[in-house]
């Protein structure tokens, strides 16, 4: 069974602070993909990043960076110099087989972390 | 480029009524998905479709029906709505479900069942 745990339910920071959102996953698959999505107050789900299990290099995109550590089954997301527009719910997700022995995949989502960036 | 759209965006209905939520994508993606988002549960997969005329159940399919006569459309029908189906429904699409392809989501439909 797959599981994604986002232990931080809510985080509140002041603008320009750095913030890290934690994601820990469980899977028996040897090949899998991890994703982060952002859900701003307007409600849509916005794709941020995809990472495969064989690529443990950290990724940086502007103020966003991701740290993937297979040894600890973690895929953490850091926002540097946070801004009010970063306020959103952030979801970590893991791809895996929909059914045991099947060939179709599904995304397993964590329950999300609500990030509030205050001016 | 419209991407993926859902209609209606908001819907109020009564217990026992039939409701259809529409999803349309312009990317010609093979796979389409329906999720529901509820507090405390995150997003859960209701149904998915690998191609036109091919659909299959996800984690929480009971009370829902889907069809896919055209690649670009994937309607979700609640045959007899119940209060427990009050939720936010998201449609998504991807080029494949090999596990590596990103799913792109529509804006969501907020459904209230009275």
Tell me about this structure.
The complex is a heterodimer of chains A (119) and B (114). Chain A has 119 residues and is mainly beta. Chain A has no helices and twelve strands. Chain A has strands at residues 3-5, 10-14, 19-21, 24-26, 33-39, 46-52, 59-61, 64-69, 74-79, 88-97, 105-109, 113-118. In chain A, the strands form three sheets. In chain A, strands 2, 5, 6, 10, 11 and 12 form a six-stranded mixed beta sheet that branches. Chain A has a four-stranded antiparallel beta sheet with strand order 3-9-8-7, with no helix packed on it. Chain A is globular. The N and C termini of chain A lie far apart (41 Å). Chain B is mostly beta strands and 114 residues long. Helices cover 0% and strands 51% of the residues of chain B. In chain B, the strands form two sheets. In chain B, strands 2, 4, 5, 6, 9, 10 and 11 form a seven-stranded mixed beta sheet that branches. The model of chain B has no long low-confidence stretch (mean pLDDT 92). The interface between A and B is medium-sized, with 24 and 25 residues.
How would you describe this structure in keywords?
heterodimer, A: 119 residues, mainly beta, six-stranded mixed β-sheet, four-stranded antiparallel β-sheet, globular, B: 114 residues, seven-stranded mixed β-sheet, 11 strands
Termini Cα gap of chain A: 41 Å
Helix content of chain A: under 10%
| Main pleated-sheet profile of chain B | 7 strands, mixed
Instruction: Note the overall shape of chain B.
Output: globular
- Please tally the β strands of chain B and state the result: 11
What share of residues are in beta strands of chain B? over 45%
Give the proportion of residues in helices of chain B. Answer: under 10%
Class based on secondary structure composition and strand pairing of chain A: mainly beta
Q: What oligomeric state best describes the polypeptide chains here?
A: heterodimer
Which spans of chain A of ≥5 residues are poorly predicted at pLDDT below 50?
none
Please tally the helical runs of chain A, counting DSSP H or I stretches of 4 or more residues: 0
